[in-house]
Amino acid sequence: MDAATPVEQQERETYLARTPASAALFARARDVLPGGDTRTGTFHAPYPLFVAEGDGCWLTDADSRRYLDTLYNFTSLLHGHAFPPIVEAIRAQAARGTVHGTANALQVELAEVLRARVPSVERLRFCNSGTEATLGAIRAARAFTKKPAILKMAGGYHGSHDAVAIAMSAAPSDLPPGITPGVAADVLIGGFNDLDRTATLIRRHRDRLAAVIVEPMLGSGALVASRAFLEGLRAVTAECGVLLILDEVITFRLGVGGLQGAFGIRPDLTSFGKIMGGGLPVGAFGGRADVMATFDPSRAGSIGHSGTYNGNATTMAAGLTALAHFDAAAVAALNATGDRLRARLNDAIAREDLDAVVTGYGSLMQLHLTAPPVTTPEAALAADLRFVKLMHLALANRDVFSSTRQLYVVATVMGEAELDHFAGAFAEALAVVARARRATSPVL
Ligand SMILES: Cc1ncc(COP(=O)(O)O)c(C=O)c1O
Predict the structure, then answer these.
(1) Using one digit for the tens of pLDDT, what is the confidence trace for 350-395?
(2) What is the 3-state secondary structure (H, E, C) of 250-309?
(3) Ligand 1: nearest atom to the Cα of 219
(4) Residue 158 Cα, ligand 1 centroid: separation in angstroms?
């Protein structure tokens, strides 16, 4: 790799100078957490910001600096940090016991709310993460169809259990460390937004394929599935006796009934997480009543599915409150705000005359430092990650906290002042990237 340009060195030095308390905490962390890290997606060089507190749209780091949040814990904090109604719901529930070790009415209430919003979900079960949700949905599909294999998309992210750890990037790769060839043998890899290739695979392997799992918008890249792709998948899976699982862990926020509602697609199963827990750990999966009956404990041979915190009262209370403040009007308003922001960011790109584009839908978007169009994860691979990292540091140095891969999220509590702050910092950081790029381009 080329040596760092003066622009890159300058941003790195500024970051180091602004964050000594994070540096000290990172040094301590390295002694007890491998690489100082406990969550791969939050790690970056030279070290991540250590945050002391979140309030509305703002984070305060260990050096008492304030940053505008544009990530909101990877989309899960729909109403920002410490949203007063959610704080109150958690406080009230904690005083009555966080979890009781048996059923509670709040589980039923949240399940009813989810079903009312997402009609394909006739029955559902709660768990504690999106990872568990996709694991449960896949297990249901295998148990119901009595077939072993699944198909996921190259570049699709469904959490960190073994079957979905394969082909998390669109780049051809070896088996990830710790994953056995036996697991990989039951995972087929389709092409996102590539119906021909994927449908051919489904038809060819129909006898051993239990399910296709797909995000209606790839979270890694904020790349929206085309309607033709999703409709085609729905048709070919139905034709082949294969279940369709829509992973709406991230995209549930994009429509009252998730993106499946917006697109008019009825999957067999859906996985949820993130916003439905109101900021507490959560997951859920559900769908056709006959498929979900595989979990019915009163039936002989049902799937065992336990979890110490499944459906715990505190998460249920927080989730109910989050969704109560997210009716159809709120969803539409948030999506409109996101669409306006995305247009502003793309205008800033046009002014810099950079090969770049911000993709996405409604309140979710991602910057790709490569020439548009970017509609597949394969196209997104052309982005220059070196400058994506620079963008991330340059934003941090301008009081904006962003994801390392430049996924941006709009929370309901962001007002015009916050959006202006972000758009201004984005334009400045983009100018930094443009300067660094010019410094590394060969002179013709
Ligand atoms: C689409 C999708 N599925 C599943 C997951 C896993 O969720 P969790 O991190 O809660 O395990 C994620 C997390 O980002 C996701 O984006």
Answers:
(1) 999 899 999 999 999 999 999 999 999 999 998 888 999 999 999 9
(2) CHHHHCCCHHHHHHCCCCCEEEECHHHHCCCCCEEEEECHHHHHHHCCCCCCCCCCCCCC
(3) 16
(4) 5
Question: Residue whose CA is closest, atom 7 of ligand 1?
Answer: 130
What distance in angstroms lies between residue 302's CA and the mean position of ligand 1's atoms?
A: 26
- Cα 371 to Cα 339: distance, rounded to the nearest angstrom: 20
Cα 17 to ligand 1 centre (Å): 34
Pocket test for ligand 1, best of 127, 158, 364 (most atoms within 8 A of CB): 158
Question: DSSP secondary-structure letter at 64?
Answer: S
Quick one: which atom of ligand 1 is closest to the CA of 220? 16
In tens, the pLDDT along 420-444 reads: 999 999 999 999 999 999 998 765 5
Residues in the chain: 444
- Residue 53: helix, strand or coil by DSSP? strand
The fold of 84-324 is Aspartate Aminotransferase; domain 2 (3.40.640)
- Confidence bin at 172 (pLDDT 50/70/90): confident
**The tokens 């896949």 sit on which residue?**
138
The residue to mutate among 270, 274, 280, 282, having the most atoms of ligand 1 within 8 angstroms of its beta carbon, is 274
Q: Are 205 and 145 in contact (CB under 8 A)?
A: no
List residues near ligand 1 (CB under 6 A): 74, 129-131, 134, 157-159, 215, 219, 247, 249-250, 273, 283
Cβ 196 vs Cβ 258: under 8 Å: no
pLDDT digits (tens, 9 = 90+) for 1-15: 578 999 999 999 999
Q: Where are the domains of the chain?
A: 6-81+327-440, 84-324
Catalytic residue set = 157, 247, 274
Eight-class DSSP state of 26: H
Question: Residue 415 is encoded by which pair of tokens?
Answer: 């007002």
Q: Which CATH class is domain 6-81+327-440?
A: alpha beta
Looking at residue 442, its pLDDT comes to 64
> Ligand 1: which atom is nearest the Cα of residue 129?
10
What is the identity of the amino acid at 379?
A
> Which atom of ligand 1 approaches the CA of 132 most closely?
11
* Residue whose pair of structure tokens reads 């209430």 in the numeric block: 109
Query: From ligand 1's centre to the CA of 425, what distance in Å?
Result: 28
Q: What's the pTM value of the predicted model, to 2 decimals? A: 0.97
Q: Give the 3-state secondary structure of residue 358.
A: strand
Among residues 198, 192, 186, 197, which one has the least CA distance to residue 161? 186
> Which pLDDT band holds residue 120 (cuts at 50, 70, 90)?
very high
